[in-house]
Amino acid sequence: MVELIQLIPEYHPRVWGGRRLQPDADQPIGEAWIVHEHNRIAAERYAGRTLAELTAELGAALLGEAVVAHTGKRFPLLIKLLDCHDWLSIQVHPNDAQAIALEGPGHFGKTEAWHVLEAAPTAQLIAGVKPGVKPEALQQAIRDGRVLELVQRYAVRAGDTIFMPAGTLHSLGPGLLIYEVQQASDITYRVWDWNRPASAGRALHIAQSLAVTDPSATGQVHPLRPMLDTDAQQLVACPYFTLDLLTSRVETLALDTRGQSFHALTVIAGRVVVESETGDMTLDRFESVIVPAANRLYQVRPLTPARVLKASAA
């Protein structure tokens, strides 16, 4: 067995960022990378080693048998928190084959999912294009800088989940705080960046965007829905990851990795203790822990009414 793994988040300034992730930062912070292969491990015994280094050493004991069979000894996911004070660029990501063709061997594509943590009353996002837009019209609009005319906007609220396959034009709007899980890739092709002065120097990627945009892709927005009579709801399942919402007011939740995939847990409300044979860890809101696949059985015990997002790769 392997002990529970907590990582040190990395904070990234963005022109569209806000003040919720690091209120005292010198610049607005747009992204907190909370689970990523280059994050350093918090435990002193690992002396600043990265998750990538530990993954290479432990292999299936950390990742899981199914994960190693699919992606090898590389941590396959990237999990972020996004604080959107302004619109992100309208952008698109490649699939696996396109990522290798455009960026070279060793690159993953980027299919992702968002879970809305907080939303202003007027918050919107962009996911795909309007129905009936012809491929040649979309391509010309990308070339001409008119893509904003053709994209599909959605109003969203806290609790909504959005699945965004590679090739889908998308953007997040002001007033959103987002949990994002994706393949371990940060390849982003900017199509349109709102002509804002703060974006000067942020290149657009027109040729790459034309190569990877799927004009039929509209994204999949799943509105907030009442909880079922269960402690866990599956929000997204795709070939790259599964995302579940765990909810408990007082009852301890029993979980099992089955040895197939690690579980990456992020508390989005309340406070919990994650209990494993290798030790326990208390987590507050927006803190995360990785439960290694070899640990199999573990428990999530709420100290207050809590909601936890669980991401896995199998």
Automatic annotation (TrEMBL):
GO terms for biological process: carbohydrate metabolic process. Zn(2+) binds at H93, E112, H170. Binds 1 zinc ion per subunit. The keyword Isomerase applies. One of its GO terms (molecular function) is mannose-6-phosphate isomerase activity. Keywords: Isomerase, Metal-binding, Zinc. Its cofactor is Zn(2+). It holds the Pfam family PMI_typeI_cat. The active site is at R190. InterPro entries: Carb_Metab_Reg_Kinase/Isom, Man6P_isomerase_Firm_short, PMI_typeI_cat, RmlC-like_jellyroll, RmlC_Cupin_sf. Residues 23-101 form the Phosphomannose isomerase type I catalytic domain. This is Mannose-6-phosphate isomerase. It comes from Candidatus Thermofonsia Clade 3 bacterium. The lineage of its organism: Bacteria, Bacillati, Chloroflexota, Candidatus Thermofontia, Candidatus Thermofonsia Clade 3.
